[in-house]
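Appendix B. Extra example for self-study. Work through it before the problem class; the solution is given directly after the inputs so you can check yourself.
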Amino acid sequence: MAFLRSRSDAVSVLSHPEYDDHEAVVFHRDPASGLRAIVAIHSTTLGCGLGGCRVYPYADEVDAITDVLRLSRGMTYKAALAGLDQGGGKSVILADPRRDKTPDMMRAMGRLVQSLGGRYVIAEDSGTDEADMRAVAEQTAFVGGGAAPVNPADPGDRDTSATTALGVFYGIRAAVRHRLQRDDLRGLRVAIQGLGKVGSVLAGHLHEAGALLFVSDVHAPAVAACVERCGATALTPAQILSQPADVFAPCAMGAVLDAHSIARLGAGIVAGAANNQLADPGDDHLLKQRGVLYAPDYAINAGGIINLYYSGPARRWADVDAHLRRIDATLTEIFEHSADTGEGTQAIADRMARTRFARNAV
Ligand code: NAI
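Solution. Structure tokens for the complete assembly:
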């Protein structure tokens, strides 16, 4: 990463390849609590920059900057494509969530968020949980979610995984309708990679709809639970990608799709929750060449931010669910445009999102 450093070894954010005219990048250290954090606000043209706070033991500041710039930009695109009046932001704390994180550190993070006056709204991400957000909320009101659900169907405005899973389920239905011309999911073969908070709930929805599931996870108990609950067929992590199926649903880590894995895909549709599924965003044309229908990740996995958007006392589950169902319409528009023009679905999604937030730019 030599390009990042000037002769004095200072990190240059403005010349970073992931810097995309971010509105603000704020560095902060709180010696008393040990907090070392970076907040990146990519765009507030559509609304406040909402995004999770990731706590991770980054190898160095350069890695942390790369992550926060990339992730905050992704939030702008995701919110814009989901039709939310909301911008994109993200924060990272350079710490080991198991070893270093303390309530004091999270309170210091809350003060940092407060100092930004609402341009950044913090939420959970990997390495942070509900208790962390409570500590943050002692210092600032700019926290996504937190109201108690009043409707039994409502998972609550802070549980982003359940709504992400439901949105992915609606997205799979859209992809199946477009590619296989059917609305009924009975007998549909779906291979799910990763049975964590999102994958396990998605498996439940698909099972209820009559789909046949093939599942894998590096965590054996998660697989055993899904086999028991949904009658799924267990596969090894090495088998899942090439399993003959109608749909491959990546719900584990990012960068699962590259030239090598795309050539081995056993399904004609890729539709899952994982963020940044394409190792190289330009690879969506390889999927297209192979005749694979790809549901762009941030279009199909927007259920979490849609849920957070409806935080507060006026929240009604019916509004959240109606918005989640719009994932179907957005994907259908992308798929149809791709079929008409031959363009990759990711490129189309990017342009649709950019058009929305750039049109609103002052
Ligand atoms: P999680 O950490 O609860 O679950 C991930 C699961 O994948 C774990 O059970 C893990 O053991 C498994 N896994 C890891 N490597 C694997 C491999 N090589 N093969 C098979 N399984 C593997 O995470 P969560 O919340 O379920 O998120 C899943 C994906 O969806 C992530 O990429 C996340 O960034 C993305 N996402 C999550 C959202 C949320 O609200 N939780 C929102 C939008 C996207």
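Self-check: The chain has 13 helices and eleven strands. If your reasoning did not lead you there, revisit section 3.
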